[in-house]
Amino acid sequence: MFKILKYSFYDLMRGRWAFLYTAFYLALTSTLLWLSPDLSKVIISLMNVVLILVPLIATMFGIMYYYHSREFTELLLAQPLRRTSIFFGQYLGIALSLSASLLVGIGLPFVLWGVFSSDSTGEWLMVLVTGIFLSFIFAAVAYFIALNHENRIKGFGLAILAWLVFAVVYDGVFLLLLTMYNDYPLEGFAIAGTMINPIDMARVLILLQLDISALMGYTGAVFQKFLGQSFGMMLAFGALMMWVLLPALGIRWVAQRKDF
Amino acid sequence: MKYFLHLLTLILWTVCPPAAPAGTIRVAPGSAWASVHEAVSKACDGDTILIAKGLYLEHGITVSRPLALIGEPGAIIDAQGKGTILVVEAPGVTVRGLEFHNTGYSYVEDRSAIRIRKTDGFTISHNILKNTTFGIYLEYARHGTVFANHLVGKAVEEASSGNGIHLWYCKNIRLEKNHIIGHRDGIYLEFADSSHIKDNVAFQNLRYGLHFMFSNDDTYSGNRFSENGAGVAVMFSRRIHMWNNEFSRNWGKASYGLLLKEIYDLEISHNTFRENTIGILVEGSNRVNYLNNDFIRNGWAIKMTGGCLENTIRDNNFLSNTFDMAMHSSTTSNSLDGNYWDNYDGYDLDRDKTGDIPYRPVKLFNFIVHQSPESMILLRSLFIDLLNLAEKVSPVFTPENIADRKPRMRRVVHPAVPTIHLS
Q1: For residue B258, is it within any domain?
Q2: Which pLDDT belongs to residue B237?
């Protein structure tokens, strides 16, 4: 598996797209840091980008890479190799190269700027960590969709749809439900609803660093417990881990049964 | 009893002629004067009682003539949980450099370390109070100073705890440079007029750092209030001036940097509100001027509810607050012009250093959160941003006239704090 991972990773890192992706983050982060003297403002802007763009790019990358390396995959399948190592190798290759781009693109400018001597270290780390989580999650989701659909157009369409649902539509429906049933106690529902969507979960994790003053203004006891202590943080990270594992298991399940 | 008191006075008068020069009594453990109580009851007008280093297990000491009680370092009066330690009933008393420990708590009486009762001209300074229910309790006191005292309480719950410095029907009092930790309210004023509260620090108190009601013509400057249960509450008072204070890190469902309730003619300037759930919560307060303040990283910088009229909010900096403002009324006579809002995304084509389009600090999401508080969890999501944007383009829910028509393009550099001479 590591050989395939290594191969995929280097293949991707050498490619034009990974370079562009890294360059984009570098440019964006440096510009933001240069324009705004207020570090937490920069982090808010960055958070919006990370929450929307990282899943989108991860989805596109995942699906493109699968279709692109389809012939190579077939070649590998003909070799005496385990299917799980082939597909996990490729998936991890994508996820790691995306994470590396993110790490360099967002990490480097901040480190050069001197984030470690500021009081925003926690927020910055949280943006990075959730960004990496989102890369893994959405690369896996895309790969899973690609595995299931030989038709490229259909695969692309579904992947974009998945992204759209998680990034925008879900929140709309969620908000609608919250306002429609606001006569009922909705705390548990609100937390559960957030857990289900990895983008929301990532957002809440960053908010816990950024807007804790406002979040503490909410009256409910369950929320207080969830937001106030490390308990909420653990739960959120747990949910993100689940979100990495679930599509990965899906990939495994499909890969083992699929007839190529 | 009264007869006895008269007799006692007579006896004392024969001991101390009224015109005798002031003497000094030194109280020390093991010496002829081993008890503070005894020294205080036998001293003459204007005497100084020096209290040497040592532990004095006493309480219920009443000072009924003008004396100066001065502690040498390490002089501790410990009530062992039995009651109020020192009661001052005479004018012109000085209490300095003493330590007061352990008044204990009673559900029947308000126990305090130092109690000033119906008198004036006192100075309470440089004392250390530990584990006292009420710290310094002033009732019907006038023209006195409470300066540089350290009060450390161990309050656990509101019902069985007292206030650090408590003023009740007082006038012309100066509270300066006191540190108050771990009481119910750090500083509590009720019916305290024309007083100056300056450079005090109150933190980690159970309820309010500063709490005042029905207290007019007071000034508050240079104080720091942080991490108190509910921040600072100011109610039912008139003609107040607060400047150069810092209100920070008051978090919780009912926490605010500053609560203004039924306050008229208040000026709040040069203060810093940092990381509070609500920076200032305003209820029914009129003619309040908010000038040159900094609101940094609060949940809500300013939240106004019902009937606030003729308030002016000008030359303030709103930096990195989650919500700049919440206001639940559609009509307003308040002016918001001329502030710096870091969320403002307008432009300045005519280069007059103010934005060309108004800034509306009340966002649609404010209303949604007000309607269903749980939706707070969607804060800063793309969908919410889209909603806010749509609302901004064509306002339907947010009031049209709550707006800064001259938003500044750059952060306000506050002018130096005006020197205000205290009477």
Answers
A1: no
A2: 93
Q: Is B140 left (phi over 0), alpha (psi -120 to 50) or beta?
A: left
User: Residues of A at the B interface (Cβ-Cβ below 8 Å)?
Assistant: 38, 40-41, 44, 47-48, 51-52, 167-168, 171-172, 174-175, 178-179, 182, 186-187, 189-191, 193-194, 200, 203-204, 207, 211-220, 223-224
How far the first Cα of chain B sits from its last, in Å, is: 42
The rounded distance, in Å, linking the Cα atoms of B81 and B107 is 13
Closest B-chain CA to A165: B383
Residues in contact with B361: Cβ distance below 8 Å, sequence separation at least 6, in sequence order: B318, B324, B325, B336, B341, B343, B402, B403, B404
Measured distance CA(B291)–CA(B294) in Å, rounded: 9
Residue B42, burial from CB neighbour count under 10 angstroms (0-12, 13-18, 19+) = middle
**Closest chain B residue by Cα to residue A182:** B372
- State the complex-level ipTM: 0.85
Give the one of B277, B380, B382 whose C-beta lies nearest to A216's C-beta: B277
* Mean pLDDT value of segment A99-126: 88
Which domain covers residue B176, as residue numbers? 22-215
Cα distance between residue A202 and residue A7, in whole Å: 30
Domain assignment present for residue B90? The answer is: yes
Give chain B's residues under pLDDT 50: 10, 14, 19, 423
Residues B264, B287: Cα–Cα separation, whole Å:
6
DSSP letter at A191? H
**Which residues of chain B from 281 to 310 reach within 8 Å of chain A, CB to CB?**
297-300
CA separation for the pair B249, B229 (Å, rounded): 10
Residue A12 has pLDDT above 70, yes or no: yes
**Amino acid at the residue A93:** G
Is residue B339 within 8 Å of residue B404, measured between CB atoms? yes
Distance between CA atoms of residues B178 and B369, nearest Å? 40
Query: Would you state the torsion angle of the CA atoms of residues B100, B104, B110, B115, taken in this order, to the nearest 10 degrees?
Result: -10
Q: A213 pLDDT exceeds 80?
A: no
The mean pLDDT value for A183-190 works out to 84
- Rounded to an integer, what is the distance from CA B408 to the centroid of its chain? 32
